[in-house]
Amino acid sequence: MHRAFIALLVVMLLKATRTTTEPTGVLFLISSQDTAYHRPLAARLRHDIINQAESQLDNTNYIVTVHILHEIFNFPSYWAIKNSMPLVRSKLLEEHTKWVVWLEESTHVSLLLLLEQLALEDATQYIYLGHTLYEHQANIRHHFAFHKDSEWFPFPFQRAGIIFSRALIIKTADEMEATNIYNSPFIIDMEHELAIYIYNQVKKNAFESKYSGKDPVGTKELNTVRKVLMRKAHYICPLSGEETKTTLDEKCAMYAKPMDKSSCVTLRPQNIFFAVKTCKRFHSDRMPIIKATWGRIATHIRYYSDVADPKIPTTYTGIPNTEIGHCEKTLKILKLALQEIDELNMQLKNLVSERDERIYWLVLADDDTLISIPNLCALLGCFNHTQEIYLGERYGFHQSINNGFNYITSGGGVAMSLPAVQKLIAYCHCIHPQDADDMLLGICFNSLEVPIIHSPQFHQLRPQDYSGEVLALDPPISFHKFYDTDPFAVYEQYFANFDRQMLQEIKNKSFTNQIATN
Ligand SMILES: *[C@@H]1O[C@H](CO)[C@@H](O)[C@H](O)[C@H]1NC(C)=O
Ligand SMILES: *[C@@H]1O[C@H](CO)[C@@H](O)[C@H](O)[C@H]1NC(C)=O
């Protein structure tokens, strides 16, 4: 049945293309990361698309090309689609390229289904297609765009795949080049920022809209019809739960998949040291929340403050609190934490244990960060702790294509391997005590050539600040901020189940250890 369907489709494609000799180029760009974990996943997707093209597109006029973006672009903001558009246009867009499809390494692509849909579209129009995301309320992540009624504005979900027409790529690239300095240097949610940019900067010609001929000139309508909004494509799907899984392949030409962690070896909580940054003002309201939730699961957790408080207890940093920035304080915390980790690891070296109890990772968190230790253990197990690793939710600060850096936004938690922390402490200094600590870490790691690794499982903000489809994909590792939200409810909804399981395992282990030592 399925095979007959494909055969039919090939014939249809042949028919569709025979009438014209002009080839149709489709360029696939895989946005991935240059790490030992991500590289094989991206290579597998490229291989998969090329295989489909070779076996299914013989004797057609389709030309399918696949690139892994970081292999060809090495400027630091290549991961933001709009920032790569000028180079995609000048380096990758060929005469025959009609469509550019942006993917991540865990996007699923059914090539024939996709081409069948694209055959119905016109690549000379300014269009982009994908799974549309919407926000629940105007939020800081989106710079409070349309703050009065932001819920109507559609923006794309890269992991599900985004299709751009040739015309839109060229137009957007032109606009980006015309404004050599980027109007907003921060990249926070690049998908939303891309949609806003296209909405604001890419204007259709007055007579190109479907209202042409109706003389809309001078009417208010003109302003809206000339804007370019992304269009929802029913055949581009988010992975939305078990119930759709069985039929997903049939109707979805592209869809988002969770990150494949089959190559990873889950860590244990013992392998991670948590450094929580607090100050006197929050000892009584924030500390109890952490201690009653994820703090219970942590084997090694310290609360660093400007005031020693034996009731918690806090570790005194000797650095006065600043209202903003915290640069000096954060570096001091990392020094103190590393010192203690070294001491603990020395003691553990002499301990005979069948399992590795040593500390390999340092995770820095705020006093209003919620963390899932089980989900963190699963992710960190994808990376080699003997290498320099700096991991979390990536933001960017880029004033132009070659001027800028990426950093891990610290509220969502920053995970670092010990070699990375050692290098940072040896070389990094604050210029002012109140410099933004997370940006300074980004600048230092950038100049030390420690790669930054992004994981969408970390969250600088609350669950309501992210789209439901995105949160449903991979198990979240962190959320941040306790305002306008009940942190206990967030913890219960996202983290508590796995934590209870882990607590049970920890209890079982100490019980069996007791038996063994008796
Ligand atoms: C981790 O990296 C070290 C040093 O680069 C290497 O020797 C080791 O084989 C790697 N371990 C794994 C499991 O890949
Ligand atoms: C803990 O031990 C109990 C009793 O032996 C067992 O039933 C349970 O499955 C164990 N739980 C975990 C999470 O290991």
Describe this protein's structure.
The protein is 38% helix and 19% strand. The chain has 518 residues and is an alpha/beta fold. The chain has a seven-stranded mixed sheet with strand order 15-14-13-16-21-18-22. A six-stranded mixed sheet has the order 2-1-3-8-5-10. A hairpin with a 2-residue loop joins strand 19 and strand 20.
Question: How would you concisely characterize the structure shown here?
Answer:
The chain is of the alpha/beta class and 518 residues long.
Shape: globular
For the termini, the CA-CA separation is 65 Å
Helices and strands: which structural class? alpha/beta
Strand content: 15-25%
Query: How many alpha or pi helices?
Result: 17
Radius of gyration: 25 Å
What descriptive keywords fit this protein?
single chain, 518 residues, alpha/beta, 7-stranded mixed sheet, 17 helices, 38% helix, globular, binds 2-acetamido-2-deoxy-beta-D-glucopyranose
Topology overview:
Elements: H1 2-18, E1 24-31, H2 38-56, E2 62-68, H3 69-72, H4 81-92, E3 97-104, E4 107-109, H5 111-118, E5 128-130, E6 132-133, E7 155-156, E8 162-165, H6 166-178, E9 186-187, H7 190-201, H8 220-225, E10 231-232, E11 236-237, H9 242-251, E12 254-256, E13 272-277, H10 287-292, E14 300-305, E15 314-316, H11 327-349, E16 361-366, E17 369-371, H12 373-380, E18 390-392, E19 394-400, E20 403-408, E21 414-417, H13 418-427, H14 437-447, E22 452-454, H15 468-473, E23 478-480, H16 487-494, H17 496-517
Parallel strand pairs: 1-2, 1-3, 5-10, 11-12, 13-14, 13-16, 14-15, 18-22
Antiparallel strand pairs: 3-8, 4-12, 5-8, 6-7, 9-19, 16-21, 17-23, 18-21, 19-20
The chain binds 2-acetamido-2-deoxy-beta-D-glucopyranose (NAG) (2 copies).
